[in-house]
Each structure stands twice: as structure tokens, then as C-alpha cells.
Amino acid sequence: MATLGAFNPYGHLARSARTGITYIPRRTLTYTVPRRAQENGDNGNKEPQSKPSTLSSIKNFFFGGKSDAKPTVHRRTAPQKREGSLSADSIFAEDEATPKLIASGRTPAARKQEAEPAEEEEVQTGVEHRNRDNMQMVLDPRPEARIRWERKMVVREVRRRGRLSKTEQIMRTERESVSKSHWFKTSVKKLGPLARQIAGKNIDEAMLQMRFSKKKAAKDVLEHLKHAKNVAVVRSGMGLGAAEATIRKPITITLKSGERKTITDPTSIYIEQAWVNRGPYGVDYDHRARGQINLLRPPYTSLSVVLKEEKTRIREWKDREAVSQRKRKTQLWTQLPDRKISAQNQYYSW
Known about the structure:
Blueprint (H helix, E strand, L loop, with lengths): L1 H16 L15 H8 L13 H10 L72 H4 L3 H18 L5 H8 L2 E5 L7 H11 L4 H9 L6 H19 L4 H4 L6 E4 L5 E4 L5 E13 L2 E4 L5 E4 L2 E11 H21 L20
Antiparallel strand pairs: 1-7, 2-3, 4-7, 5-6
Helix pairs in contact: 8-9
């Protein structure tokens, strides 16, 4: 106890003798890494430091001297990240700047091809380098039937003297597109009037009619007409006359119904036919009173349209005019020429 009592006043005396230095306990809540490094004299530079002598330490302790060497705090940094590389058979291997470790893989664009060994050349897989003998069973599975068909076609061309039939000529000069919709949840009785309404109209006019129609199925018909128009333009190349900006003289024709129509663009699309297809019946439930359930069978129906260009209607009008003109010519009365009456007899010849 005497030792402890003598030790405590010495500690207060020592702290009071050190002017300008505040006392910091070694283990408190505010104990941090920089303070610990300052107290312990941790040197992150890993250089040998000279230890102060005992006399200089006592002198600095009582008179508040400062040591020349200041302890430094060493902060450790995270190691640098190692970036990975692409595999040899990656499709992005050409964008990588580093050379490949595997020579058999794809090489970057900056690497010269002469540096590759000759025995590791890539196999040419182009169409002109393919072996036709390996694909013969797929390209020509029945050569005898192909030869017979070619001979038949040559004989037909010789007999016709190279002339095409009217149907073949129409198929080669005029375009058409057939489009069938998905199943609409409606009946034939409800969708039929809409199909008859748009038949014979221009595709843009029919879309305008369906847009302002009060029928519930008109919305589905409108979406199908948009899809059918896009298919006709992309696949068949129809309706591209307005894009070419070619100026044509308007022509007035008479339709089958007797209606007169003026056509300014022969390549514009119109609906030549529109019909309704009966589809399958679905299953629905009608919940009634007392827990009873009636089974309903809602019908499904689809819409099919045939799109053609206005030049087809012009050709059909010209054909009808030619037929009617031939009929009129056959019914005309012609005046017989004047001739002298000869070989007259007052009696009958029988």
C-alpha cells in the first residue's frame, strides 16, 4: 500500500511538470489507429530508427522537449485488381488488345497472320470452299426425278413456243398478298358484316372505317389490316409508288358494281376479297343462382383478306370493256349494198 501511495503522487507530479502536453490514456474509446501509431512509434517505411538515449528521454520528459523524428502512419492500400482475359474461341477476341495464350484460337486484329504457324491454319468454311459431294444427298436427293421434271419443262416450252398463258402472265406482272388473322372471340354473324364492309375498299379507307366503327370486333379487324398492309409492303413490295414519287395521269374506271372510281396511284393497295373463317369453340362458365353453373361455348372466328394493287382493277376494267365492245359489234345492223334484181319469175320455183 505504501508503494502504491508513493507511486500515485509521483504520477501527478510528472504530469504537472510536463507543460504544454495533454495526458492521453492508452486505452480509451477514442483510441484510434493514428494515435496508436503515434504512441508506439510505428514506422511504415520499414527503415531502422535510432533509439534515443536515457538522458535525452528524461530531459524531454521533464522539460517538454520534442524529438526530431516524427512517427509516420502507414496506410495499407488494396492490391491492384487483376483483369481476366477472354477465351480463345470467344467472339469478342478481336477487341482484346492483349495477345492470346492459345495460338489455335481467334487472333486479335493487331496481330499479324504471318506469325502463326503453318500447321494451325483455319479451315475455310465459305460457300465456295464447301465440299459439294457431302451435300449432294440434301441438295439433290432424287436426280432421276429432277432430270425428268427438267425434260418435261423443256418440252412444254417448246410446244408453247415460249409463250406464257394468261394466268402465268398475270402472276408475273401483278402482285398480291393473302393474310389470315388469329382467332377473334366473336361469331361469324358479327364479323361477317365487317368483312363485307371493307371488301373492295382501299386499305387506308378500310382502316379509317374500322377506326370509327362502333362494333366491338372492329378493333381486332383494324389491327389485322395494319399487319396485312405491313406484310404486303415488306414481303411483296406493294404500295411503293408513292415512295418513288412518280407522277401519273389519273384514270377513271368503272367497277363491277357500276361505281366510278378515279385512280391516281396504280400501286396503291386495295382489299380484293375478305371472308370469315369459323374457328373452334371455347369453354366458359355462367354462374347462376343456388350454386348452379351453366356451360357456355363462345365461338372463335378469323378474318382472311386478299390484298392487290390498283393496276389489277385497271386491267380487269380494260378486259370488261373489251368484252362488252366485242358484244356490241356483233349486234350492230349493217346496210347491205345496192344490187340489181335479176332472174325474177312470176311463179314459185317449187
